[in-house]
């Protein structure tokens, strides 16, 4: 009975927009505690829509979502904290980095030295402790994204949702952030759902990749990524150039090609 | 190393238009003297300066009257405009019902309604302030509403996910987002309240109630004292420029740290 405990359950979740376009066909998935899930697929496959529904920012047209076996109103309690990192850093330009990171605490009514400590810890976690007095515009794109992650981590979340967070960054910065993110996931025992259209990013980061296809958006395959030789927690950079990595990339590549073939066939 | 060209740039910014002004004044003086243009048609700059010095007491008294009306109208516009904008931004139905009337107020020429207001309102200062307020109010309303609505959708989602209250979202997100727009409105309205005050004085001044700069211009016109007319005009212009510059300064002080409009490009 002591199987993995589910963090998010999706039962027959569907999303159809008012104009009739089906963004996501019936989808049933379970994300378990401690997993690093990647939703991988081309644009229009509904991966961002799916993430938004998990975040509670969009309502499914059909089906049901449960968080820690409860409804959305129960999210936020102890052990059930869900946060999201968006495509852009979405920092408040008028506030310094520390104030941006502190925002979720302030909205929750937390003040004083405890909040100060949490902000300092979060900044340290992403390596921005020297930039707490800077304005967002004074930071590079990668550093802004780090600040955004610090803001997400400051409330000690259990579930972290990320919508192509590093999509706008150059590959070198992106690789570094991916490495740090995987470290954080292991260190903080997070459950992460990560949306991307990069096969390499998906292989490097994930424990499980959910391959999706477009028109209509749907799940076409799931691939478990297991490379214990390169670390089951934090992953070494050597993984990126390993035989296993190339093999997983090939599998995902085939899965995507197959999925898009299906999609075109149906359309 | 960097300071020198920057200083030169700043000096040029002041010196170049100043030089143009001096050249124009010298040309003006030269033409008037060379062609013996009569003083009652076009007075020379020196004659205007003489008039300014000779009638200094009378003109500055008039300036205070106009300035008082201008500043009062500006203040009322800010308070009223911001209040209306907040109410409009809170409720679509209220905005839909009332916004057309705000537009109506804006497009009706103040010269056309000033006589009515002056008849209806006994107190001369109050009637002038009312006229000037009608002119200056609209940019503050429309700019502030636009600002309160121009919120980064990502930040709005972030606030939503953190279960922010309406009040928190207003004070921590909408108000700071609206500031640049609000200051844009202030710049326009500062000039408009002066224009409104002068126009209202023109309408009222013939009745003998006013003693502001517009009244001085009318009197000088009747007496064919064109030099004094120009001197009064000069004071109005200077007042407008000072008002505008103080708004620019205020905006710089408030937004200098973060908003794009106030940042000096780094080279």
Q: What's the CATH first level of the largest domain in chain A?
A: Alpha Beta
Q: Please give the CATH class of chain B.
A: Mainly Alpha
- Which chains have the largest interface? A-B, 23 and 22 residues
Beta-strand portion of chain A reads 15-25%
Number of strands of chain B: 0
Walk me through this protein's architecture.
The complex is a heterodimer of chains A (267) and B (267). Chain A has 267 residues and is an alpha/beta fold. Chain A has two domains: 6-81 and 158-266, Rossmann fold (3-Layer(aba) Sandwich), CATH 3.40.50; 92-156, no CATH class. In chain A, 36% of the residues lie in helices and 23% in strands. Chain A is built from seven helices and nine strands, in the order βββαββαααβαβαββα. The termini of chain A are far apart. In chain A, 43% of the residues are buried. Chain B has 267 residues and is mainly α. Chain B has a single domain, classed as MetI-like fold, CATH 1.10.3720. Chain B has helices spanning 3-34, 45-54, 56-90, 92-107, 110-120, 124-149, 153-161, 166-205, 213-222, 226-255. The two termini of chain B are 12 Å apart. Chains A and B meet through strand 5 and helix 2 of A and helix 7 and helix 8 of B.
Summed up:
By secondary structure, chain A is of the alpha/beta class. Chain A has helices spanning 47-55, 97-107, 112-125, 141-153, 171-188, 199-205, 243-266, and strands at 6-16, 22-32, 36-40, 62-67, 82-85, 159-163, 191-196, 208-213, 218-224. Chain A has two domains: 6-81 and 158-266, P-loop containing nucleotide triphosphate hydrolases (Rossmann fold, 3-Layer(aba) Sandwich), CATH 3.40.50; 92-156, no CATH class.
Which characteristics define this entry?
heterodimer; A: 267 residues; alpha/beta; Rossmann fold; six-stranded mixed sheet; three-stranded antiparallel sheet; 36% helix; globular; disordered C terminus; B: 267 residues; mainly alpha; MetI-like fold; flat
């Amino acid at each position: 009975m002591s199987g993995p405990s589910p963090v998010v359950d999706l039962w027959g979740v569907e999303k159809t927009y008012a104009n009739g376009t089906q963004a996501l066909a019936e989808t049933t998935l379970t994300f378990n505690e401690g997993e690093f899930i990647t939703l991988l697929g081309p644009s229009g496959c509904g991966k961002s829509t799916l993430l938004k529904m998990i975040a509670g920012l969009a309502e499914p047209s059909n089906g049901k979502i449960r968080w820690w076996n409860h409804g959305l109103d129960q999210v936020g309690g102890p052990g059930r904290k869900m946060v999201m990192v968006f495509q852009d850093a979405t920092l408040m330009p008028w506030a310094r980095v520390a104030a941006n990171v502190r925002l979720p605490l302030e909205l929750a009514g937390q003040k004083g030295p405890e909040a100060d400590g949490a902000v300092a810890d979060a900044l340290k976690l992403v390596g921005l402790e020297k930039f707490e007095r800077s304005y967002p515009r004074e930071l590079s794109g990668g550093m802004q994204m780090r600040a955004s992650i610090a803001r997400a981590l400051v409330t000690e979340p259990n579930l972290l949702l990320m919508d192509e967070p590093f999509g706008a960054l150059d590959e070198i910065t992106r690789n570094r952030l991916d490495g740090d993110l995987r470290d954080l996931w292991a260190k903080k025992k997070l459950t992460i759902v990560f949306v991307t259209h990069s096969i390499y990013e998906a292989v490097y980061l994930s424990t499980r990749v959910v391959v999706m296809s477009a028109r209509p958006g749907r799940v076409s395959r799931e691939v478990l990524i297991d490379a214990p030789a390169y670390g089951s927690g934090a992953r070494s950079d050597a993984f990126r150039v390993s035989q296993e990595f190339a093999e997983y990339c090939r599998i995902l590549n085939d899965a995507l090609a197959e999925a898009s073939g299906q999609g075109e066939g149906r359309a | 190393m960097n300071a020198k060209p920057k200083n030169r740039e700043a000096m040029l910014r002041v010196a170049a238009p100043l030089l143009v002004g001096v050249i124009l004044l010298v040309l003006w003086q030269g033409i008037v003297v060379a062609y013996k243009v009569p003083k009652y048609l076009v007075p020379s700059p020196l004659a205007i300066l003489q008039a300014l010095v000779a009638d200094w007491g009378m003109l500055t008294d008039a300036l205070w009257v106009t300035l008082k009306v201008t500043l009062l109208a500006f203040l009322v516009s800010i308070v009223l405009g911001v209040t209306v904008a907040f109410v409009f931004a809170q409720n679509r139905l209220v905005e839909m019902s009332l916004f057309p009337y705000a537009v109506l107020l804006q497009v009706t020429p103040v010269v056309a309604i000033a006589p009515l207001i002056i008849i209806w309102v006994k107190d001369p200062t109050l009637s002038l302030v009312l006229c000037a307020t009608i002119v200056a109010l609209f940019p503050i309303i429309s700019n502030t509403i636009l600002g309160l609505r121009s919120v980064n959708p990502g930040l709005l989602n972030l606030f939503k996910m953190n279960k922010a209250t309406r009040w928190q979202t207003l004070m921590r997100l909408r108000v700071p987002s609206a500031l640049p727009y609000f200051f844009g409105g202030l710049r326009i309205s500062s000039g408009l309240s002066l224009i409104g005050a002068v126009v209202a004085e023109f309408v009222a001044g013939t009745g003998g109630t006013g003693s502001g700069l517009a009244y001085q211009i009318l009197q000088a016109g009747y007496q064919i004292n064109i030099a004094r007319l120009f001197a009064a005009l000069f004071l109005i212009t200077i007042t407008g420029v000072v008002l505008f510059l103080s708004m620019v300064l205020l905006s710089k002080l408030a937004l200098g740290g973060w908003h794009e409009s106030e940042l000096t490009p780094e080279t």
